[in-house]
């Protein structure tokens, strides 16, 4: 199946060139840097690079883009874990779980694990792409809008499954997010809704400022009201350092343990990542939600432990879930290249830029690229592996440096966070209205936390609401308004069944829980 | 230097108040701080800025608004234009993707930008369409055209396994079929929708024979064509190029007067007996009211750029059809094109084809009903949880004053938004940081450090390193 000649040619092109190594390392540093700043996404890192791509040869340009994306997605974990602001939407799924470790002073532990899992996910994705690329691309071609509709519904169900606390509250949060997504000019109808005549609302609520507000700004406000007591002593610097060196050994042990114990779940998360990544429009954010939910689901089958050991056990479990989610989001990056290469249909916004860059180099993506440019295709796979190998040292360095953030006194850190929230939400679209969106969402997040409602489903609702409604309207229009159009094709029936099973098991479970509480 | 000494004297003399609340209310302290802050700011701004006097145009970075998202065709052209304009004008040109609202956002922002010549827009055909559909008050009259760059004619695509090989086949199928044919290529009411409905109407067929499915963008529409969800795709050749070259789809005709050099074997509609043409276009514009001497500088730069071999090579390799026109030709083209769209978009055929099967408020109403169902169990679980002591209630400080600080933070951010376009990013951020540091009870040294270091550093990081255009104010930054 693998053409050895082309493969060795590709390997020579990738690994034997000094300039490619240099570009990959520079791109890794840049990717980590951009990804770690809330408001700047992996897409933006790549978009800013396009003018430079003009001067590079195809291999170098692709190497830079792949490395940037992989590193930026990992680096999104840094502010997620340290400040509770997701750096990229892909980290939003596990923001609360990860931040809980930071509160205990174990930020480094989560970050290192996330890094290793990202690298594993990335390499897994590259290998899966190499083995199954052509076949998977065909599978992606079977998905029409109706299948996407079911897929997005499943994604939303995942947000409810993973949320802490009562399910009804998670559903309400989700509905709130979905409602926000309907604000603006409806893509399906081209009609303004809920805009109150404000021109800036025509483009809707942009989800990156919303996400920064819901997680970052709300944290600042909460701290001002609740955790303001200055009497709360910070751990002395010395002990914090001791803990971090102590936990380095611990994390190594933990990572080794994970590699042995969780082979199957790593495979599963990697698979979820690749499969979701290659569906156009369903990028690494959905991959990470679904993998996180799947991981939670599997854990619920394990017996619960009570007492002190129970707490250790629940920590271990949440680490496992975070690991699975980071594996999936990096694996999905590779998956998104499959439809891009085979059909020239972008799997996400990054590969959309990649197609542009390839065409700029007179390389047209399409099935013939596998015949005519096979070495190039192999180089792309190998570049994925190289990028992830470079990510490991660069990521460790970034974790080391960012570790100092927790040492900064609150009185300095919080103004800085606010400045980052403000500048980050402005940066994406250069719009001051987005800053107000961020602020409003910060206040909303504050209110939600005080009402003990989960904030993460709001974000997923905002992200998925638009596509979900569009796919629903498209499916119904194609079927002339007949609701049976949603379950006409075999694939859509399969996905609909999966959705019904998920919701059904959730309902049964919550009834059981209520019964148990009643007795 | 004198001002720095003054600053030092202040810091030596002043007593620092530890409690932020007391500080907020003590007038004397606030006054002292303000005086100290102003002195320090003057000192630093003198050191850093030099003198930001307004030299020749352009003397600072330009912003190029792209109304569509990163990665698309318009974005690719915008980034190429930015690179070349940078060479022509000698200042950085930053691309801003002001996306959303089907082009409303970007086109409105470009037209409403301050007319100083520092904001350009890479406008697309939607500038001719949105105001006719009542979606935007902005039209071509709000802009000063600088130069037309490209025109891409619409084309009709079918799946390789389809039975239709020519326009006549499709026309016959449209006339015969009882069920409408599903087609897409862009959102309902978009350029390709207008192109297809215009053609159908011209053939004398009823507009109900085509069921336009609103799919955002050509790429997902082609994916839908491959998946078998729709029968026809109407979009431009470069958007479909990869799949066309791969033989996965077939192009039945080009809605132009002449064949495209990008696909010379595709016949035009006119060759097949249908006199129908419609193209999208992309061009550079600036808002109305820019001083004429600045417009002249920009026009000359755009003209050189668009006629350069480098630009031609880029357009060729991307499959875009170059169509260069200078400012006066472009102005004329815009008004001509505007009249054509007024006719097409106002025609009963087009209006009728936009009536949706699913009403716009269908989805929000579903959400509302679900919300009502879930409110009751959520409230009940709220009551159950409330019996346990929450963290918030454990807090001993229950005085209303603890709400003051979050309110100050919120007001500070609002004040930042209100003022930063006038006084500039760095000054506004410095004021914001200073206020926040006080609210959070920083020590005097910390306040000074945060105020004086954070704002310039953030500016360096975002504006210089990452090329994000931040608001520009009094001091030049």
Would you give an account of this structure?
- The complex is a heterodimer of chains A (519) and B (477).
- Helices cover 76% and strands 1% of the residues of chain A.
- By secondary structure, chain A is mostly helical.
- Chain A has one domain (4-518).
- In chain A, helix 10 (207-225) packs antiparallel against helix 21 and helix 12 (263-277) packs antiparallel against helix 13.
- Chain A is globular.
- Chain B is an alpha/beta fold.
- Chain B contains 19 helices and 10 strands.
- In chain B, strands 1, 2, 3, 4, 5, 6, 7, 8, 9 and 10 form a 10-stranded mixed β-sheet that branches.
- The two termini of chain B are 22 Å apart.
- The chains are: A mainly alpha (519), B alpha/beta (477).
- At the A-B interface, helix 3, helix 8, helix 9, strand 1 and strand 2 of A face helix 4, strand 2, helix 5, helix 9 and helix 10 of B.
Give a short summary of the structure:
Chain A: This is Tripartite tricarboxylate transporter TctA family protein. The complex is a heterodimer of chains A (519) and B (477). With 519 residues, chain A is mainly alpha-helical.
């Amino acid at each position: 199946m693998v053409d050895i000649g082309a493969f060795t040619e590709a390997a020579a092109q990738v690994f034997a060139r000094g300039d490619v190594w240099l570009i990959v390392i520079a791109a890794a540093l840049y990717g980590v840097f951009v990804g770690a700043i809330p408001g700047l996404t992996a897409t933006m890192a790549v978009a800013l690079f396009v003018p430079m791509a003009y001067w590079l040869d195809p291999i170098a340009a692709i190497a830079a883009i792949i490395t940037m994306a992989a590193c930026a997605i990992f680096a999104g974990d840094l502010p997620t874990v340290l400040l509770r602001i997701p750096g990229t939407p892909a980290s939003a799924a596990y923001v609360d779980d990860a931040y809980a470790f930071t509160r205990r002073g174990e930020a480094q532990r989560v970050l290192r694990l996330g890094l290793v899992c990202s690298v594993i996910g990335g390499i897994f994705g590259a290998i899966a792409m190499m083995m199954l690329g052509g076949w998977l691309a065909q599978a992606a071609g079977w998905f029409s809008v109706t299948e996407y509709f079911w897929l997005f519904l499943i994604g939303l169900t995942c947000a409810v499954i993973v949320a802490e606390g009562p399910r009804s509250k998670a559903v309400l949060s989700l509905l709130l997010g979905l409602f926000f997504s309907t604000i603006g000019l409806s893509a399906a109808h081209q009609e303004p809704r809920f805009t109150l005549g404000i021109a800036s609302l025509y483009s809707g609520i942009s989800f990156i400022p919303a996400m920064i507000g819901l997680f970052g700004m709300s944290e600042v406000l909460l701290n001002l009201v609740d955790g303001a007591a200055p009497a709360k002593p910070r751990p002395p610097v010395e002990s914090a350092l001791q803990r971090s060196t102590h936990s380095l050994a611990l994390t190594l042990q933990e990572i080794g343990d994970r590699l042995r114990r969780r082979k199957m779940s790593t495979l599963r998360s990697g698979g979820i990542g690749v499969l979701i990544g290659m569906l156009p429009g369903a990028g690494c954010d959905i991959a990470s939600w679904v993998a996180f939910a799947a991981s939670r689901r599997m854990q619920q089958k394990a017996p619960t432990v009570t007492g002190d050991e129970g707490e250790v056990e629940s920590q271990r479990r949440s680490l496992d879930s975070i690991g699975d989610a980071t594996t999936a989001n990096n694996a999905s990056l590779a998956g998104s290249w499959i439809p891009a290469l085979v059909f020239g249909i972008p799997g996400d916004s990054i590969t959309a830029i990649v197609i542009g860059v390839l065409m700029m180099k007179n390389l047209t993506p399409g099935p013939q690229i596998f015949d005519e440019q096979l070495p190039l295709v192999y180089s792309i796979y190998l570049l994925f592996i190289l990028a992830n190998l470079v990510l490991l040292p660069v990521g460790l360095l970034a974790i080391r440096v960012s570790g100092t953030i927790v040492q900064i006194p609150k009185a300095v850190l919080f103004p800085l966070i606010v400045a980052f929230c403000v500048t980050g939400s402005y940066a994406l679209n250069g719009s001051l209205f987005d800053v107000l969106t961020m602020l409003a969402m910060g206040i909303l997040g504050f209110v939600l936390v005080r009402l003990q409602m989960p904030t993460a489903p709001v974000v997923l609702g905002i992200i998925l609401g638009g596509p979900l409604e569009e796919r629903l309207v498209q499916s119904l229009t194609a079927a002339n308004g007949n609701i049976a159009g949603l379950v006409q094709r075999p694939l859509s029936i399969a996905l609909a069944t999966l959705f019904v099973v998920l919701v059904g098991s959730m309902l049964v479970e919550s009834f059981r829980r209520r019964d148990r509480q009643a007795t | 230097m004198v001002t720095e000494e003054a600053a030092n004297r202040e810091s030596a003399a002043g007593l620092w108040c530890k409690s932020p609340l007391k500080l907020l209310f003590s007038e004397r302290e606030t006054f002292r701080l303000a005086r100290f802050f102003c002195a320090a700011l003057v000192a630093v701004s003198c050191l850093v800025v030099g003198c930001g006097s307004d030299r020749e145009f352009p003397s600072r970075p330009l912003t190029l608004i792209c109304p569509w998202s990163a990665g698309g065709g318009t974005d690719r052209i915008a980034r190429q234009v930015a690179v070349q304009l940078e060479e022509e004008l000698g200042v950085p040109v930053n691309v801003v993707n002001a996306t959303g609202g089907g082009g409303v956002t970007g086109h409105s922002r470009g037209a409403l930008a301050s007319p100083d010549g520092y904001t350009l827009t890479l406008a697309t055909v939607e500038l001719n369409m949105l105001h006719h559909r009542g979606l935007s008050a902005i039209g071509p009259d709000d802009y000063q055209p600088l130069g037309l760059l490209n025109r891409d004619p619409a084309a009709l695509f079918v799946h390789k396994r389809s039975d239709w090989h020519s326009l006549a086949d499709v026309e016959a199928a449209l006339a015969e079929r009882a069920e409408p044919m599903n087609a897409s290529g862009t959102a309902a009411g978009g350029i390709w929708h207008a192109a297809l409905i215009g053609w159908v109407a011209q053939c004398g067929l009823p507009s109900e024979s085509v069921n336009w499915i609103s799919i955002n963008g050509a790429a997902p529409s082609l994916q839908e064509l491959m998946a078998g969800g729709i029968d026809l795709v109407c979009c431009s050749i470069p958007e479909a190029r990869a799949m066309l070259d791969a033989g996965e789809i077939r192009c039945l005709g080009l809605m132009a007067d002449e064949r495209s050099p990008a696909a010379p074997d595709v016949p035009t509609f006119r060759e097949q007996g249908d006199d129908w043409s419609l193209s999208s276009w992309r061009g550079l514009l600036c808002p109305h009211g820019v001083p004429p001497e600045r417009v002249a500088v920009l026009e000359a730069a755009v003209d050189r750029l668009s006629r350069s071999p480098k630009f031609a090579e880029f357009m060729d390799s991307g499959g875009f059809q170059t169509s260069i026109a200078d400012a006066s030709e472009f102005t004329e083209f815009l008004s001509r094109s505007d009249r054509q769209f007024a006719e097409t978009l106002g025609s009963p055929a087009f209006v009728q084809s936009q009536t949706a099967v699913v009403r716009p408020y269908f989805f929000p109403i579903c959400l509302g009903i679900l919300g009502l169902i879930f409110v009751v169990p959520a409230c009940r679980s709220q009551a159950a949880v409330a019996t346990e002591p929450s963290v918030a209630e454990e807090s001993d400080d229950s005085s209303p004053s603890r709400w003051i600080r979050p309110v100050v933070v919120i007001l500070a951010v609002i004040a930042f938004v209100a003022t930063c376009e006038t006084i500039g990013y760095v000054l506004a951020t410095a004021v914001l940081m200073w206020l926040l540091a006080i609210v959070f009870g920083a020590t005097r040294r910390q306040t000074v450090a945060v105020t004086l270091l954070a704002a310039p550093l953030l500016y360096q990081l975002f504006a210089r390193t990452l090329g994000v255009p931040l608001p520009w104010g009094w001091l030049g930054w």
